Amino acid sequence: MKFTRAIVRPPDPSLVRGLTTAGLGRPDLRKALAQHAAYLRALEECGLEVTVLDPDDDYPDSTFVEDTAVLTTECAIIMRPGAASRRGETASMEQTIRGFYDDVPRIQAPGTAEGGDVMMVGRHFYIGLSERTNSDGAHQIIRVLESHGMSGSTIPLQDLLHLKSAVAYLEDGNLVVTGELLGLSDFSGFSVIPVDEDEQYAANCLWLNGTVLVASGYPKTKQAIEVHGYKTIALDVSEYMKLGGGLSCLSLRF
């Protein structure tokens, strides 16, 4: 498929209070802003028209917009984050998304779901069952998808924050995979690009119209992706890594 638009939200000073178990220290706001600006430029370089929302100091994690919604070719689904402190992020995002979509259902309690657990592969969606996305939320997503002629399936996660922390679809049947998802039967039909244990963070990469955004500092993964014929853009996301976030987390693409 081809992406034409993206939605992003720059961080603000509340970023330092974001949820994290990474143990890498507090993010530096100045660096985070510079890294976000470079990310925005990369999206535009890949041909996307980017909607930039205002920072939201009420929600320290709100720069990770991917978790608020799942955008498909047919509809947009507003998530209900598993982290209770993030649930208020969806209201303003829904207003924005309704400017692009007519059908915008919401995940309802007791379901929880975050977009970082949802990987689109054509018209099928893999949904990770994690601390943030429960079975009820996942099956609500699947019911919406099926009502639009799409499909979904679930993948139980053990230690991952989100499914896309360890897998990325690069189109053309190629998957970047690492950690507990390596060897998974669900992915047996794909050409797998394995990521070494010492570069696991780089598995959260992002395909955009033939170019793959990769986290800088992971040369083996970057080279492995390039060997498969993709152009890459390496981006420093060190400050977002401190909050457990990565390249896909910082935008919604459609």
Which CATH architecture of the domain at 5-163 and 237-253 would you pick?
Answer: 5-stranded Propeller
**Helix-strand sequence:** EHEEEHEEHEEEEEEHEHE
Q: Please identify the structural class as seen in this structure.
A: alpha/beta
Helical percent range?
A: 10-25%
- Beta-strand percentage range: 15-25%
Whole-angstrom Rg: 17 Å
CATH H level, superfamily name of the domain at 5-163 and 237-253: L-arginine/glycine Amidinotransferase, Chain A
Structure commentary:
The protein has 254 residues and is an alpha/beta fold. It has a domain at 5-163 and 237-253: L-arginine/glycine Amidinotransferase, Chain A (5-stranded Propeller). It is built from 5 helices and 14 strands. The protein has helices at residues 29-45, 89-97, 135-147, 219-227, 238-241, and strands at 5-8, 49-52, 69-71, 76-78, 118-121, 124-129, 151-156, 167-169, 174-177, 191-194, 206-208, 211-215, 231-235, 252-253. The strands form 5 sheets. Strands 2-1-14 form a 3-stranded mixed beta sheet, covered by helices on one side. Strands 5-6-7 form a 3-stranded mixed beta sheet, with helices on one face. A 3-stranded mixed beta sheet has the order 8-9-10, with helices on one face. A hairpin with a 4-residue loop joins strand 8 and strand 9. The longest helix is centred in the first third of the chain and has 17 residues, at 29-45. The mean pLDDT is 96.
